[in-house]
Write a structure and sequence with these properties.
Number of helices: 4
Oligomer: single chain
CATH superfamily of the largest domain: Efflux pump adaptor protein, beta barrel domain
Number of domains: 2
Distance between the termini: 98 Å
Helix content: 40-55%
CATH architecture of the largest domain: Beta Barrel
Strand order of the largest sheet: 1-8-11-10-9-12
Shape: elongated
Structural class: alpha+beta
Radius of gyration: 53 Å
Largest sheet: 6 strands, antiparallel, barrel
CATH class of the largest domain: Mainly Beta
Length: 396
């Protein structure tokens, strides 16, 4: 009984003491291992503070971030047909005119198709000229057939005259047969001669009909080449339609061939080239563009104004910009246009105060000529003197 009572007391008292000791040790370790918080220097030099002379009641200047771009925004050029690039004429910084070659995709198959279509045009033209060359032959065939018809008609007249002569001799022989001047055999011979003459008349008339049929056939064949007014007949018209169809097919193949050569759509300057000979060019617009072109004109600044500042903004308010790294440089801005559609924010300034789930009003300003030497795509800090809202207007 004594041993059992000792073990029970040890368990009931010792285990809680061990738990309390572990809890105290844990509290001590947590308290002594807290991270030390120290202030860090800013990642870059703070911007020059805006002038203190800001109109009362305006709520301060509107601060925004802008990105420089060429006039009318940069143009990202893509390939119209996928393939391996064989020639790249674009060079960064070069001035290009509208229609200048930028790069060309392998076009050998398309060029062969154009050559085949051109051969079809040549064959169709040759068929038409061959038909036109037979016009004189058809006309000569008609003249020949008409001459044969005339000859057959003259033969009929001759055979009819001979038949009449044979008939007259037969009539005379039959009358003289009663007077025994001629024999019955002579009369029979005259009757047979008359029948032969009648058969020759029938043969001559058949020849006339045959010659007339040849004339009609020749005229029909000529009518397929030349109509009654001297214009083209159905066969030549069909040949001309085949030529037109072949030319359209050739034009289509030529248009497809032209798509392999990518030309500059505008006059401007090449800002970036992202393609090299031997590389595969997809038939889609990549995010950066195979060639990027900027139009001629003053440099523009696309500024994103947060939606909370839209009520204080007006296009005619004074504004200026400072390029990153040049806070002492202030470039005056002239509002070019405002895009009225408020869109989700895309440009980030790199500050910890950036809010990505906000919407912005995009305003495009024109920079002065002193900004022409600066890089395209550079970020600017923009300050706009705001307009006073009704809630901020001082009481009268």
């Amino acid at each position: 009984m004594t041993r059992t009572s000792g073990r029970s007391r040890l368990v009931s008292i010792g285990l809680p003491l061990v738990g309390l000791a572990a809890l105290a040790l844990g509290i001590f370790l947590v308290a002594t291992n807290q991270p030390s918080v120290s202030s860090e220097p800013p990642p870059r030099r703070p911007l020059t503070a805006p002038p203190a002379a800001v109109a009362a009641g305006t709520g301060g200047l509107i601060g925004a971030v802008g990105t420089s771009e060429p006039a009318g925004e940069p143009i990202a050029i893509a390939a119209q047909v996928a393939g391996v690039v064989e020639v790249v004429e674009a060079r960064v910084g070069d001035a290009v005119a509208q229609g200048d070659l930028l790069f060309r995709v392998d076009q050998r198959r398309a060029a062969a198709e154009v050559a085949a279509r051109q051969a079809q045009i040549d064959a169709a033209v040759a068929d038409r000229e061959a038909l036109r060359a037979t016009i004189a032959t058809r006309e000569a065939a008609i003249l020949s057939a008409r001459a044969a018809q005339n000859s057959a008609e003259a033969r009929v007249l001759e055979m009819e005259a001979d038949l009449a002569d044979r008939q007259n001799k037969l009539d005379i022989g039959e009358r003289l047969l009663r007077t025994s001047v001629v024999t019955s055999e002579e009369v029979d011979n005259r009757r047979f001669a008359m029948r032969q003459a009648a058969a020759r008349v029938a043969t001559a008339k058949a020849a006339v009909a045959e010659a007339a049929a040849v004339v009609t056939q020749s005229q029909a064949e000529l009518a397929r080449l030349v109509d009654g007014s001297g214009g083209s007949g159905p066969d030549i018209l069909a040949a001309e339609k085949r030529i037109e169809l072949a030319r359209r097919e050739c034009d289509k193949a030529a248009a497809e061939l032209a798509q392999f050569s990518v030309l500059s759509p505008v006059t401007g300057r090449i800002l970036q080239v992202n393609v090299r000979p031997g590389e595969f060019a997809p038939a889609s617009v990549p995010s950066e563009g195979l060639v990027v072109i900027g139009r001629e004109g003053p440099t523009q600044l696309r500024v994103e104004i947060d939606e909370v500042d839209i009520l204080r903004f007006r296009p005619d308010l004074p504004a200026w910009a400072s390029p990153r790294g040049g806070a002492g440089t202030r470039l005056p801005l002239t509002c070019a246009y405002v895009e009225p559609l408020v869109v989700p924010k895309r440009g980030l300034s790199g500050r910890t105060t950036d809010v990505v789930d906000t919407r912005v009003l995009q305003v495009v300003y024109t920079l002065g000529p002193e900004a022409a030497a600066l890089a395209i795509g550079q970020q600017y800090d923009v300050f706009i003197t705001p307009a006073a809202t009704e809630a901020e207007s001082p009481p009268r």
